[in-house]
Structures are given as C-alpha cells and as structure tokens.
C-alpha cells in the first residue's frame, strides 16, 4: 500500500497549533453527523454524484437522500476516514494519513468513480465548509438536539435544499478552523488524486 512518492518528497507538514485546531474542531463537528452533512452538501452542489448511488440527479430530494442506504453508508465511510486521519495526526507519521488517502484514491478508481480534479476540489471545499460550520454550531448549541442539522429554518435564514448548509445565526465559522482544515484537506486530496491517477496509468500500460 502507498507506494506514493509522497514519502520521498519534502512537504510542508502541519504545525502543532494547526493539528490542535483541527482536532478541536473535529471533536465538536463529529457529533453533528458530519459525514452526512459533507455528502449531502456535495450532492447538493453536484447533483450528478447522486447517480453513483442510484438516485437520478433530477430526483434529488432531502427524503430521498435520508432514505438511501448507500448514501448513509458512504457518509459513514467519509466520517470514519476523517476520524481516523485526525486521530492519527500528531501520533503517527503524516505518511500514514497519506497512505490511507492514497488507498482511497485507488479504491475509487476500481469502483469506477471517475473524479476529475474539479470534483475533488468540490469535495475539499465542502468538507472544509461543513466541518467549520458544524464546529461553530456545536460551540453555539444552535443545532437540533439530535444533531441532524435539520433545524427548521426561519425567514431570516437562507433556505437550501438540505438545511444543513444554511448559515446559522450566531454560529459564524471560525477562519482559523477553515484555514487549518483547508491545509489538511489539500494534503488528503492530493494523495487521493495521486492514488487514483497512478492506478489509472498502471492499468493503461498493462
Ligand atoms: C474521505 C472520503 C471518502 C472515503 C473514505 C470513501 C471510501 C470509500 C470506500 C472504502 C469505498 C469502497 C466500498 C466497497 O467497495 O465496498 C467507496 C466507494 C464509493 N465511493 Fe467513496 N469515499 C470517499 C469519498 C467519496 C466521495 C466524495 C464520493 C462522491 C460521490 C464517493 C463515492 C463513492 C462511490 C460512488 C463508491 C462506489 C459505491 C458502490 O460501488 O457501491 N466517495 N468509497
């Protein structure tokens, strides 16, 4: 696993302060169904992704998303991966996180999930946004008691298909959280892309 050349490349690692900020925000965000929020928000931005899970892109509804077992499972995978990655930061070499991300990239190649660079970028943006928002929401305690991100929106709040992406008054995202998560996700996505592309090229040659 992970014959990624990242191990031989000098990369800017995360500082202790950045790791602390990532851990702190994640501890708060993960209690708010963050995997689901990330995936739902991703599909809201790229309805075509829903087709991978058997939902026609023109039939994406909140109920349809809630009831899709495949989506729940995928949300669980995303959250589980991020939990492991964040848990490893500061305790294991960063190369172990790269290896996991690299492997995920390879898996998506074999599952036929054909991500272009643009789609990985959306995934990165959405993850940063959603973690920062959930962490801020958790701090302010404005989420519904079950952490579904499904609180009823009032007229002052921007209406969006899934509610979870609406700005929550009094729960402004912390820019430091966003910067640190952006750094982490840049590293993770880079390895996912590399894993995917290396596998694609290897298959091309064979
Ligand atoms: C950290 C992020 C992610 C992780 C850890 C992850 C993990 C996985 C794993 C382990 C599988 C293989 C499941 C199996 O073969 O049983 C998989 C499949 C898949 N993933 Fe992801 N994934 C991530 C991001 C995404 C994103 C952003 C999408 C975009 C929609 C996506 C779409 C899919 C699809 C469509 C499959 C195939 C499902 C199937 O064949 O049933 N994944 N993912």
UniProtKB/TrEMBL annotation:
<dbReference type="InterPro" id="IPR009050">
    <property type="entry name" value="Globin-like_sf"/>
</dbReference>
<dbReference type="GO" id="GO:0020037">
    <property type="term" value="F:heme binding"/>
</dbReference>
<feature type="region of interest" description="Disordered">
    <location>
        <begin position="136"/>
        <end position="155"/>
    </location>
</feature>
<dbReference type="GO" id="GO:0019825">
    <property type="term" value="F:oxygen binding"/>
</dbReference>
<dbReference type="InterPro" id="IPR044399">
    <property type="entry name" value="Mb-like_M"/>
</dbReference>
<dbReference type="InterPro" id="IPR012292">
    <property type="entry name" value="Globin/Proto"/>
</dbReference>
<protein>
    <submittedName>
        <fullName>Globin family profile domain-containing protein</fullName>
    </submittedName>
</protein>
